[in-house]
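Box 3.1. Reading complex inputs
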Amino acid sequence: MAQTTTPVAPPVAKPAAAPPARSPLRRFLHAREASTFLALVVLFALGTLIAPGFVGTGNFLTVGQQIAQIGIMAVGVTFVIINAEIDLSVGSIYGLGAVVCGLLMTSDVAWPLAALGGIAAGAAAGLLNGLMTVGFGIPSFIVTLGTLSVYRGVTLLLSGGAPISLSAKDPAVAEFNLLGQGKLFGVVPMQLVLFALVAVVGTIVLSRSRYGFNTYAVGGSAEAARLCGIDTGRVKVAAFTLSGTLAGLAGVLGLSFLSYVQGVTGTGMELTAISAVIIGGAALFGGSGTMLGTVIGVAFIGVLQNILNLRGISSFWQTVATGAVIILAVAADTWLRRRSGRR
Amino acid sequence: MTSPATIAAPPTAAVEVTGLSRHFGVVRALQDVTLSVPAGSLTAVMGENGAGKSTLMKILAGLDTPTTGTVRVAGEEVRRFDPATLLSRHRVALVPQELALAQDRTVAENIMLGAEPGSRPFPHRRRMDERAAELLDRLGLRVDPRRTVRHLDAAAQQLVVVARSLAREARVVILDEPTSILSPAESDRLFEVIRSLQADGVTLLYVSHRMPEVFALSQHIHVLRDGRHVADWPTARVSPDEVVSAMVGRELAAEFARHDTVAPAATATPRLRMRAVTGAGFTGVDLDVAPGEVLGVAGLPDSGRVELLRGVFGADPVHGGELRLDGEPFAARTPRDAIRARVAYLPGERRQQGILPTMSVADNVNVLTLGRRQRLGLLRRGALRRDADTRARELTVKTSGTAQGITQLSGGNQQKALLARWLSIEPRLMLLDEPTRGVDVGAKAEIYRLFRRLTSDGVSIVVSSSDLPELLTVSDRIAVMAAGRLVGVLPAEQATEEKVMALATGAHTMKENA
């Protein structure tokens, strides 16, 4: 370049060009959920092609039934992850809720109270997770890694190591079993209805309530949120409590579905629930993610397992596949966002 | 411009950028930028926030990839844009604004990272320390290379990053706003280091908003605006005014003239009255702020001025003393209390403490007034969007719509959005820490104009800043702090940079080398 320089100094600042209006399609493609949704569509197409008996209301409702419990847990975990925290204990809380409910049932407590007892045990466990995380100021990864073990131990102690079976001959048990085995209008599994209900309420709370707003604020930057007058501790404790409550509810549904629970019931479910949330696009750094994404993530895992089941592939391979999908989902999302320059 | 014929063409260009563009979706961060940096020179790159300086520097350091265009370093074209290639092959090093250091590793480990003597898996620790000590010595920094970086102040940490680039034998060192985290004395020390590097033949690229230092250090000035290269000159042939008008594309006339509102009535009840206020980092502060006054707070970064603001706001605890707001006892134990009393606080660390980084401009602006826009426990999104649009327009926040993510805005526009946030509570007292840090000239002028408008409405503003000329411009009075104590209050018409600095530094010249 020549050293003889003449400054170009147009006297008028150029006004920033108005951004082109975005079509609904473009807006959809830019939404965080888009990549997960497209992946789900691809998976559906694949299922249609390779899995006999995949297409059909009956099979889809079965999938709905299978994902309901994980889905209900994932709704709670979504709140925790958007808060930039993690809850590793939901699998243990699931077991705790189921065992507490089962013990109350076998002690002839009225079934609605027994169910509420299981849910309350989950809420208490979640509250404790939150209070310890905020109170001690230590990472929730550590707290819930600890309570993963503590709650599991408590569950084993409560059950005395023996399985709890509910006899369907008992009319109270028969009523209770409608929660997990009943079908709305004789078609739609009650569990799926409950999941839908939880997901809708979760969506409204997350995207339309002040609490949901605060969740994104705290997860994005806790210090900035605090300086805006948001009680960050309360927001986090509430998220853990919600997560525990929903895990307890899922446990109660699990008991109702199988009429049977053991001290080890629910082991490993936390990883599936967390996977669903991550596949759904929530970042572990916090501050981002949507309930719709989580629901798509849950459906994705459910459909994947269903296809593998229909193809008669062993559940060991299903475990491998779920793990691989998590990595692929996050890698694809990162790649897409880097390409479009979003952060 | 005078005749350019007297300047001899330099033998080689250290860095040559040709037709460089970088697009993020529809945003054009850089458009067809062509410039050349003579070997051994110090070349300044100036521009408003959002002009594309940071993007250009990131590309040169391999942290970003251009959409089109080429970069040549010492004649060789850069084919892979990643930091390792730029550093090892082309020997271009970046000293970023936000220093990326391993806080719990030693100074030597940080400096020698990637250039460890001895075998890679088992570096020779003693030789590493010696080599680090040599490099530190060359930079005139006297610290033990075995100390952990966490214990160093910002200035020393910055020199550690400079030393790291020397360890990798960088031929081109990019300094991005290096003085934004430094006190004036620390800046002077950095300038000496920069001059000695240049004397050793290192080419420097210098990004800054600050005219005096650019004019003192550079040989060439390039200006970017809206992603385009709009002007360049040899420094000796241009005036600061010309540079400013190229940056903003318009003349900034008497915009920076001294704030001269009606002198606040001495008899009025002070808006804020502090008596013997003590907290972590400040002790026994007695200070009044009048309604409609701009009170500047000057002092070195460790003087306690930031802590004082945070204490008043309730962000950190206040241990003793008395605070009154409009005559009423006022003790904010949390930010929420302060906000309820219509007290605003704008943190200096915009990225860590100011913005809600994952949220939209609208959400960032609305966060304080959600309660007013609720129905049946649900937020009224439409009303909130209109609120945000109005507030953003009032402060001329440049966005492609308030639904845009806040992090996609330039620093100046982020700051304006945050000011819009705080204006939503109709504050009576605003506590502002470094309100124009990392903000371009144009936005600065707008912020100063805003101060004037607010104070004429009776709002009191306390500005803590390390930018002395700015404080002298905008304040009615300047309070000077040193080592946690208030050491003087000067009316603006009597204050000079020298007087303020004498107060700010005089009290503790002894602990300079602590």
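In summary: The mean pLDDT of chain A is 86.
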